[in-house]
Each structure stands twice: as C-alpha cells, then as structure tokens.
Specification:
The chain is 46% helix and 13% strand. The chain contains 14 helices and 10 strands. Helix 3 runs parallel beside helix 13, helix 4 packs parallel to helix 5 and helix 5 runs parallel beside helix 6. Bound molecules: 2,6-dihydroxybenzoic acid and zinc ion (ZN). 2,6-dihydroxybenzoic acid binds next to loops.
Length: 325
Amino acid sequence: MLGKIGLEEHFAIAETLGDSEKFHPPGVWPALSRNLLDLMEIRLREMDENGMDMMILSLNSPAIQMIYEPQKAVEIAKKANDEMAEAVARNPKRFRGFAALPMQDPDAAIMEMHRAVKDLGCVGVLVNGYSQIGSPEKYVYLDDPMYRPFWAELEKLDVPFYNHPREPMPCNDKQIEGHPWLAGAAWTFGVETAVHTLRLMCSGLFDEFPKLKYILGHLGETLPFCIWRTQNRIEKEARGVPAKRPLPEYMAKNMWLTTSGQFRTAALLNTMMEFGSDRILFATDFPFEEVKDACDWFDACSVSDNDRLKIGRENSVNLFKLTGL
Ligand code: GRE
Ligand code: ZN
C-alpha cells in the first residue's frame, strides 16, 4: 500500500541518544544510533522504498522522563521539540511530530505542550510512562492527582496523548533476574505500559475527562486480549475501584492502538475483533524495528483493502486532523 502514515517513529538528539544504548548489543548500536539521529536521508529513503508517506516523529525512551531535575527536563524537552520542528519544517509533507514533555513539572509540561502544539505545530504529545522527579528513586505515574490539571488542559487542546513504553521501576527487577533477554521490548516494556494504562482507566481519569484521546503502541500492549478478564474480575470484586464505567468502554471511546513492533496478522485480527478497524493505526517502531518488516507484513496481511487503507492512512489523517498532505 502506498501513502502509509506511521506514528511510532523515533529519533534522538545528542542528549538522549545514550538512553537507547543499554537495550541493544554493541554490534547493532552503530547503525541504530545513526538511524536515531537521522531526520533526513536515511529515513526518507526507508519511507520511499516502503510506501510510507509520513512519519509522525517522537523522541526515544525514556529520555525526558528519566531526567529527574525538573529544570533540566524542561530544557531538554524544548531542545528536542525544537530540533524535531526543524525537521518537520524542512519536509512538512513527510514529517510531523509528537511533543516530548517535562512531566517532572506539570505546569511546565502544560506550557511546553501549548508551545509545541500552537507554535511548533506538533500534532500530539508522547510521554514515556512514569517520570522520575527530584531524585532518581522517586517515580510518579500519570494517575497521580498532580497531573489532573495537565489532563484537563490536554482535553481542551484536543490533541492525542501517546503513552509509550519505558522499563519498569528497578524495584521490579527481581521478576526477570537471571533472564535478561526478557527486558525491554521483548516483554517488560509491554506489561509496564499495560499496567500504567490500567491505573489510568481505574483511577476514573476518563470519567473526569471523557474526551481524552489516548494512544497505545504494540497493538495495545496486551490489553485487547486481556481486558475482558480484567473487567470480569473487577465486576466480581470491585475493591473500591474509582472508575465509573467498564474498562472496555474507555478503550472503545478514548483509545487508539498502533501496530508498532507487532507485525502479526492473528494479533491484528484479535484487535480488530475487539475494537473494529477505526481505531487501529499503522506504526513501525523505527529504528528499533525495520520499516521494511513493518511494511512488508502490513501491505500483505489478510485484511480487506478498505481496512488496510483506514489503518494504514485514513484513521491517522482523521485522528490528527492532518492537512496539506
Ligand atoms: C521502543 O521504542 O519501542 C524501543 C526502545 C528501546 C529498545 C527497543 C524498542 O525505546 O523497541
Ligand atoms: Zn517505540
């Protein structure tokens, strides 16, 4: 399919590049770091060769979320957003961007979100899970009451929020002790981000802000497969959960899911059976995955051409109100 739009397409700036290094063997790092830093030739060639019109860019992980000094987080987020905006300005038909946000300071995050959306033209925001704040050992999830004004402002601005994976807190390390191959994208990213999303849903966030638009990668980080059971158990034993509605209802109304890093037709079909094809969006997870792998799979997978067009392009045009393509 030509004209695909991808929305988990990462880049790095010099200050955040090293964050991605620990997840990969040294052998692959030179190519990976080159691809992360490139916002021009390499990326455009990959896109041209594989039928991608546009990448909606986002910073690597955890990047801003692990810069525990709020002032520094603000500074680096601005720098990343400015560098990304320059790349978008050079190639507005090929690139758009998600803003990185310094969640260490919710007021500054609101200000940077406004600047990024209104002045820089960002089409959404992307946050890498919980943030470390004030010290490396203080972790704050996005259901913390201090973020309620941020969510209110996000709802007013009406741009999508992408909750992108980061590694679980170190206190969970024992779970995979002796099994380092399960760290990161292989397994722990996904459960971390699924739990974070369940916290948000159960906290009543989407009752308070029913118009929030929330995106998950990796076909929903296992939630489409598991949410029926979670809801079933919560219905039987609510234990004081603040959420007013069934969790699948928030997923149906507030969530969009992308194909990043999940190039598997059976998993896509399960997601379509739970959600329909209007809320699933194409994404690659470049450069941690190959654009070619994502596109070869997606272009040939056994869905209708109508669904392919929606997932590959039209749902993103509608969600991000993209113009000037
Ligand atoms: C990702 O963004 O999904 C990612 C990383 C680091 C390693 C692998 C990976 O941020 O897929
Ligand atoms: Zn990613």
